[in-house]
Amino acid sequence: MKVKISKSMIVFQCIAYVLLALGAVVCVAPFLIILSGSLTDDAIIIKEGYSILPRGFTLAAYETIFKVPGEILQAYKMTIFYTVVGTVLGLLMITLTAYVISRKEFKYRNQVSFLIYFTTLFGGGMIPWYLMYANVLNLKGSTFPIWFPGLMSPFLIILMRTFISESVPDAITESAKLDGAGHVTIFFRIILPVLGPGLATVGLFLALGYWNDWYRSSMFSVSQDTWELQFYLYNLLNASSSMKQMAQSANIAMTDIPTQSMKLAMAVVVTGPVLLFYPFVQRYFVSGITVGAVKG
Amino acid sequence: MEERLERKIWGRKTGVVMTAAVSAIAFILSLPFVSWVKVVNISSLFPKIGISREAAADLYQGYSIFNLLDFVQKGGQGKIGLYAMILLMLLIAAWYFNLAYLWKAVRNKKRKDGDLGLYAAGRLAMLSVLLLAGASVGFVAFSNSRFGMKGFSASPVIYLLSVLCIMAYAVIKRMEKKERELYHEHGLLKEIRKNWVLFLMLVPTFVYFMINSYLPMVGIYYAFTNFNFRDGLWASPFVGMKNFEFLLKGDLFRLTRNTVLYNVAFILLGNVLQIIFAILVSQVSKKWFQKTSQTLMFMPYFVSFVLLKVLVYNLFEYDYGLVNNIVTSLGGDKIDFYNTPAYWPFLIVLFNLWKGIGYGMVVYLASIMGIDGELYEAAKVDGANVFHQIRYITLPLLKPTFIILLLYSLGGIMKGQFELFYQMVGNNGVLYNVTDIIDTYVYRITMTQPLSIGLGTAAGLYQSVFGFVIVVVTNWLIKRKNPQYALF
After folding, report:
1. Does B320 contact A at CB distance below 8 Å?
2. What ipTM does the predicted assembly reach?
3. Angstrom distance (rounded) from CA B381 to CA B387
């Protein structure tokens, strides 16, 4: 069948293309500004300011960063540690919980779900939460309060429960139970093998959360050894003193440091991994949000 | 007695009436005018714990759980304050459970599992009173050990109530047993024996939510203290509502106004923009363009707020910022963004939209994709153009999603976007008047003014309670009008 293209359709398509292109540019341009700034000669930035395209192309900023890579590598190492530990542990705990509250034969599943959901409705606030880790458990300065609070969230548990009930029909687990399978067998042999997309989605949400976190470091880190990458960047932006420190340890005069472009180069180094992975993992986030949205 | 209880009509009714009466008695006896804790040996106690003659004039001989904190405050006894606060919370829980039981007993609504719900409520009510009574006795012992002498004694009311509750509990249990056999239901212990693996799987989650959410709730006590690290978690002086009064006189109005108004702007503009772009993406004819534009617009969601800080700095910095660059090249004067509050509400809203548009688009796209394609086909046959289709098919069918998202964000209207505000504004005091929200205020106190921790907790508690009330009320209203939109 030949579709007749009406006039209104043409008008609409034009508007749509223009607006979407505009939206896409607005969303991406800032990244380009950062990237080009990091490649620009510092003197030019100071004289003429930032611009969208790099002028006086140079890698000086990156060279300065990697002249003394100790600090940034430490922050990288810690962030990878937090991300891996948090994602693996969190994924396990979330999946187990979601499995339990999706069991029809579990009498208290509604009560358990409510207790989890209630934490989004009411809480003690930031200070009691902080005092819990810092004073009651006395863990300020250790890595525990940095990775532990990010392990689970009600949203992710509910998301995982939806994934479980969609990928494994009750009839299958019922028949497995009749064959004598216990919960451990059902969980590891039946549920987990087909839960790939769910695990990927929830795992990526967790990992992204850990990678982008700065605030737990800002509250619980005592020394720079436990800083998260984002908090490292944050401090670099704020304090010129950390720049000076870098200059001293790299044996460069403070005036020779490309201060402005170095900040941007650091931002690129910190965000790089996320943007590199982004095109490949984006669809998991989309599917996660879609599943979450459909089920409310 | 037992036979009577098992008789469906008369016996059970008596049982419920009796236990409901116990519930009512418990409620009445826990009202403020009945004293649970008696102050004894006043003449030697007050000098020992440092209560002056003038302060003593304000104190009573006996206290209910309800006004125990009064003693703590006026007597300056911070060291028993936290425990007294826990008692108060238990008291409120006991009131709630007992009133709930009374309400259920009076309404006497039949459910598909018979009276099991009623009995569960009854047992909970009795247990809560027992817990309160036990904790009160514990409190007396605790205080006496803190005082170093016998200063408090537990009133007989506590013991009387405990006995009554144990009896009522036994009666309910007895009735429940029969009912359970009738409906093939079982209790907690049997469930644990049957599904112990499932309970074991929940242990890590339980620990997590205890540490991260439930135990910190006890800490709202610090909202009522003048917290200091020397006296610590247990002994900081209790000051009653002073912190709230201070907030009310000072920053509370400004903070609330900022938090709520920003959220309203975020919610309304965000949703409208997301709907517009979701519709555009869904209608574009070229698949590759659809994919690319969506991917690119989703990108800001993935970067941290620290990067946002870099961006904002890049664009609006006075000397090198891109915007000032453009302004000067067009012959204008440089704008001092970081010292001019007027710009920031727009900038903050703008960057919030920027960061959130991709996420919201995906949500709305999901529900657009769920619309039956035949509707559009039929509309085309009837001669509707694309604008008509959007107006009469897409938008009406997006309404439920829109309303649910709206309600959901309405519930969070007191919660500020802390990371956004903190990274965009930071510690720039010039802008506080228009950019300070409750969350940034509390964070600043936590990190830089440990002496104001009580004040910060009070602000946080105000935020939590107010937010909670808004959620519950909204949900209740929605449930009455349109149950399918209810959140819980």
Report:
1. yes
2. 0.89
3. 15
Closest to B129 measured CA to CA, from B85, B169, B171, B84: B169
* Residue B310 to residue A127, Cβ atoms within 8 A: no
Cα A9 to the chain's mean position, in Å? 40
- Which of A178-182, A218-222, B209-213 shows the lowest per-residue confidence on average (mean pLDDT)? A178-182
Residues sharing a CB contact under 8 Å with residue B248, sequence separation 6 or more, in sequence order? none
Give the CA dihedral A283, A284, A287, A292, nearest 10 degrees: -140
Query: How would DSSP label each residue in B258-277?
Result: HHHHHHHHHHHHHHHHHHHH
Burial of residue A57 (number of CB atoms within 10 Å: 0-12, 13-18, 19+): exposed
Q: Which residue has the tokens 């007695």?
A: B1
Share of chain A above pLDDT 90, in %: 19
Tell me the average pLDDT across B415-432: 82
> What pLDDT is recorded for position B11?
61
Model confidence pLDDT, tens digit, residues B295-332: 888 889 988 899 888 888 888 877 777 888 788 888 87
Residues B344-377 have pLDDT tens digits of 889 899 999 999 898 888 888 888 888 888 888 8
**What pLDDT is attached to residue A2?**
45
Q: What is the rounded average pLDDT for all residues in chain B?
A: 84
Residue among B293, B320, B464 minimizing CB distance to A20: B293
Which of A34, A151, A294 is facing B310, going by the closest CB pair? A34
Report chain A residues whose CB lies below 8 A from the CB of B298.
282, 285-286
User: Given an 8 Å threshold on Cβ–Cβ distance, is A218 in contact with B447?
Assistant: yes
Q: How far is B468 from chain A (nearest CA, A)?
A: 6
Residue type, A117: Y
**What are the chain B neighbours of A39 within 8 Å (beta carbons)?**
none
Q: Which range, A267-271, A292-296, B104-108, B323-327, is most confident? A: A267-271
DSSP state of B342: G
Backbone angles phi, psi at B370, to 5 degrees: -80, -5
Question: Which amino acid, B62?
Answer: G
Neighbouring C-alpha atoms within 13 Å toward the C-beta of B432: 12
A214, B447 contact by CB (below 8 A)? no
Contact yes or no for B257/A161 (Cβ under 8 A): no
Closest C-alpha among B157, B148, B109, B151 to residue B129: B157
The alpha carbon of residue B160 is apart from the nearest alpha carbon of chain A, in Å, by: 32
Q: Best residue in A127, A235, A283 to probe B by mutation, most B CBs within 10 Å?
A: A127
Residues whose CB falls within 8 Å of the CB of residue B69, separated by 6 or more in sequence, listed in order: B81, B84, B85, B88, B224, B238, B240
User: pLDDT per residue over A186-201, tens digit each?
Assistant: 888 888 988 888 899 8
SS3 of B122-171: HHHHHHHHHHHHHHHHHHHHHHHHHHCCCCEEECHHHHHHHHHHHHHHHH
Query: A137, B211: Cβ pair inside 8 Å?
Result: yes
Of B197, B216, B453, the CB nearest to A182: B197
Q: With beta carbons less than 8 A apart as the criterion, state whether B362 and A286 touch.
A: yes
Residue A209: pLDDT band with limits 50, 70, 90 = very high
Amino acid code (one letter) for B427 = N
